[in-house]
Structures are given as structure tokens and as C-alpha cells.
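ok so for the tutorial part 2 we go from a plain amino acid sequence to predicted C-alpha cells. step 1 is just haveing the sequence, like this:
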Amino acid sequence: MTATQLTIPKPNPNRPPLRVNLFDYAKNSATTLAPLFPYLDEGSIVPCITVQRGGPGRRYGRFQHLNSVDEVIMMFGTAGGMIFVGPKLHPVSTPFDDPKYPFDATLALITQRQLIGKPQREEYRFLCDSCDRRLSVTAFDATPRKRNENSTGEDLFPTLVEGYRAAKEHNANEENFLCSHCGHMNEPFPYETWGWDLYAEQGRVAAKMRAAALAASHTIDATPSNGEG
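step 2 — the prediction. this is what the C-alpha cells look like for a chain of 229 residues:
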């Protein structure tokens, strides 16, 4: 078969092709690692935007992220640019020498490909600010929804939702703050700086309102137009 004989199938009407300007999207991004598109099921390519900036009193904290799929990182707006594939277990913080410096900022696109028919697993490992030793570890199942399963509109990126849950559980136990290796007393992990709480909470609100709107539309469709019961 020659290249001219190949036929690209029409897009699935339930998954229309989408596009977005990265820099325009960044203006309204409320969280780091915000998915650009709503497709999160198996086989999907999931590009996410991360915007970080310095400012008075700003603190990002430190953690390790374990992801069973590769993450491809592209940096934008930096001198020379940069693209690389991160290791499965990688440290996460901020590239700024001083997060309180107000003129530092970075924008990155982090993309992963969801597996098909295989489990995905992730971990959050919160670290000591002084010696980088682990304070607590939370693992979770990040296996995507099957492609042939209908979405209810409640799909949220598990990396963010579970990160929010892991951080809250970490902060709820004050014993996690004291590093058993160096004795440093750490502060609670600042998940608000990362925006995980906004994504999770607003995602739940959006799912609830979507379900209410769909229920209302079904009620209208089921009402007889001639007034007969």
C-alpha cells in the first residue's frame, strides 16, 4: 500500500479535534499541570501547562512524583528553550533560586500518553526542605477510563486530585513535619501555591452543575408537547 492509498478516518464526533493557544490558556490557568484538553481516557495524549512565578511570601515546597508513564517537558519563554523526557521518579519544586523574587517566572508544557489496557500508577513523596529525605509517601491508581466507556463529564486529572488529597493527608499529621533524618521541622506543604485545591474543588462543582443541567434537559425532552400526560 502506498502513502497515497492511506485514508485517515474522520474524527469521532464525541471527540472533536481541539486546539488552544498555550499562552492564551496560561492567562486563565488556575493550577499547575492544568490539562489543555478534556480527553483523559486510555490512549489519549494529555498535554498540561505549568505556570510558576515568584512573589512576596511565595513558597512551593518540595516533593517527588512517581509516574509509570513518561512525561515530556517543553519549556517556553526561556533562553534557548529546552525539551526533555523526565525520569519516572523525579523531584518537583521550582527552578527559582528565590521563590520570593517577583520577576522570576516559567511556563512549561508537560505531556503524557495514557496507556491502553494497562494499569497506571503514581506516587507523591513529600520531602524535607533541609535534606530532601522523604517525610511521607502516598501511592494511587491513575489508570485511565476505557475509551469505549461513556464519560459522565466528571473526568478530572488524577495527578491533581490525588495530589490534593495526598497533601491534605500529609498536612493533617503533624508528625510528618519533623524529619527523622536531620531533625528539621518542616512547614505544611503549600498545595495552594500549586492550585491543586482550586482544580479539585472547582472540578467537583463543574461536574455537579453539568449533571444538573443534563437532568434538566432530559426532563424538558420528556415533557409532552401537546399537554397530554
